Amino acid sequence: MATQHSRSAARIMMAPAVILLLGWMLVPLTMTLYFSFKKYLPLRGGDLGWVGFDNYVRFVSSSTFWPSVQTTLIIVGGVLLITVILGVLLAILLDQPMWGQGVVRILVIAPFFVMPTVSALVWKNMFMDPVNGLFAHLWQAFGAQPVEWLSNASLFSIILIVSWQWLPFATLILLTAIQSLDSEQLEAAEMDGAPPLSRFAHIILPHLARAITIVVLIQTIFLLAIFAEIFVTTGGSFGTRTLTYLIYQRVLESQNVGLGSAGGVYAIILANIVAIFLMRIVGKNLDA
Amino acid sequence: MARAVTTRRKAFNTLLAWSIGLLIFFPILWTILTSFKTEAQAISDPPLFLFFDWTLENYAVVQERSDYTRFLWNSIIIAGGSTVLGILIAVPAAWSMAFVPSKRTKDILLWMLSTKMLPAVGVLYPIYILFIELGLLDTRLGLTIVLMLINLPIIVWMLYTYFKEIPGEILEAARMDGAGLKEEILFILTPMAIPGIASTFLLNIILAWNEAFWTLNLTAAKAAPLTAFIASYSSPEGLFYAKLSAAATMAIAPILILGWFSQKQLVRGLTFGAVK
């Protein structure tokens, strides 16, 4: 059916998207690589020449690097753990027969549609504020000392905010996956007297494995890049400086472009490692 | 589901699910409620839930003081513009990949997806510098282009999965009946593709509306959309909870409503068709 004529037409139809994305990828990437080998301080002398791998070495040997890696891992790991575990439980619950299922689903999904700056600011001020926040009122009602969330429990607070934003995503995808489960299989297991826990472990969880992997991979890529949630809450202080935020500070705040670009290359490599795994799964799905 | 369920079990599920649902929704509900309070009531101890003097004053103040409509307009133009532009570029590409697949189609699709994985912060400075050089910094045009580019892979993917579902036999049947390429596209494919295009449009409006890396870093006063407008509330002066809530409510309301319509598309779009 595909003639020579339609093949060349297809190529022309694809060209704009391919060329644009190629440019979007190659131009900035080349520039980042270029800057990463230079001592480049736009506000203090500009281009000060080639320095080889100096920026790469300095970026990882600076005292801020390892703490930022640790912070990144804690935030990404914490959010993944919370969203996947609660997501599985919520998805199972939402799959049960109940009244007003549609409305509950809407309530659960809603946080995903709130823009990151809004959710961060609402949590910061109206819930976590040590004087006027709802948590402070709640703590006082029980006679406890209000907590300074964003300075004394900063990582936990960020994890809470980000988990709230991403739980709907995990729940929705896992729910979609659960709904494709063959209910006869579950019924058969129930008839055979399998207790709920073993039905969960032997039927539901294996069925969800692929969806969970996808949730983990996609969220990891987005979570490695979270920015606004830190930008408007702590501004990277109190131990919340992630790798992304550190690079941002190097590049735009202290205008050390060479150093920041080397950090950027590290971030790109890191994201690509995760991406490879995601692409494998998605690619396999294309063949099916 | 064919399983017989006792009413008691159903009641229990309902109660549990509603409690959790309301708990998750609570921050949004609380924000909406607070936007109708006076500033004094907004921080009253104990907190007031429903019994306060409902007022619309905050909405008027936010509009007057910070010119909300200007930010709203920027958001609409940037999110809408980038989505329309993206779809115009993606439709032909997804079309040809779905109907005239070649050996490389899969590689091209996966490569497009990989550009989406590029961490923004890794290319922040190059884009920043290019924007200054090209006079695009703090312009709606510049942001529209960047948001179009970052969402283009998702748009292509979504359209591709929708177009894939259009059966090729229909085209052959039409050709037998003597339809030319133009008739084929105009009268057969387009009507079948419209629902997919509409879903893609919806999801991408949401993604572009909420994007908060480039919109914060590439705008200042002129082209700032609602994400940046809200961020300006991070350094407050005096009493501001009620006004913050009013501003937040206005920023999220349009997208919350759109979002409720797009739950299904969300799964397909954000998992690149891997979960349907």
What does this structure look like?
The complex is a heterodimer of chains A (288) and B (276). Chain A has 288 residues and is mainly alpha-helical. Chain A has helices at residues 4-36, 54-61, 65-95, 101-109, 116-127, 134-141, 149-152, 154-179, 183-191, 196-224, 228-231, 243-253, 257-287, and strands spanning 38-41, 46-50. The longest helix of chain A is centred in the N-terminal third of the chain and has 33 residues, at 4-36. Chain A is globular. The radius of gyration of chain B is 23 Å and the shape is globular. Chain B starts with 6 loop residues before the first helix and ends in a 6-residue tail after the last helix. Chain B is built from 13 helices and no strands. Chain B folds into 2 domains: 7-59, no CATH class; 66-270, MetI-like (MetI-like fold, Orthogonal Bundle). In chain B, helix 4 runs parallel beside helix 7, helix 5 runs antiparallel to helix 7 (140-164) and helix 7 packs across helix 9. Chain B has 276 residues and is mainly alpha-helical. The mean pLDDT of chain B is 86. At the A-B interface, helix 1, helix 3, helix 4, helix 5 and helix 6 of A face helix 1, helix 4, helix 5, helix 6 and helix 7 of B. Chain B: Its main location: membrane. Chain B: Belongs to the binding-protein-dependent transport system permease family. Chain B: This is Sorbitol ABC transporter membrane protein /mannitol ABC transporter membrane protein. Chain B: It is a multi-pass membrane protein.
Give the SSE map.
The complex is a heterodimer of chains A (288) and B (276).
Chain A: H1 4-36, E1 38-41, E2 46-50, H2 54-61, H3 65-95, H4 101-109, H5 116-127, H6 134-141, H7 149-152, H8 154-179, H9 183-191, H10 196-224, H11 228-231, H12 243-253, H13 257-287
Antiparallel strand pairs in A: 1-2
Chain B: H1 7-34, H2 39-42, H3 57-66, H4 68-99, H5 105-116, H6 124-133, H7 140-164, H8 168-176, H9 181-210, H10 214-217, H11 226-231, H12 241-261, H13 263-270
Subcellular location (chain A): Cell membrane
Main location (chain A): membrane
Domain ABC transmembrane type-1 (chain A): 69-278
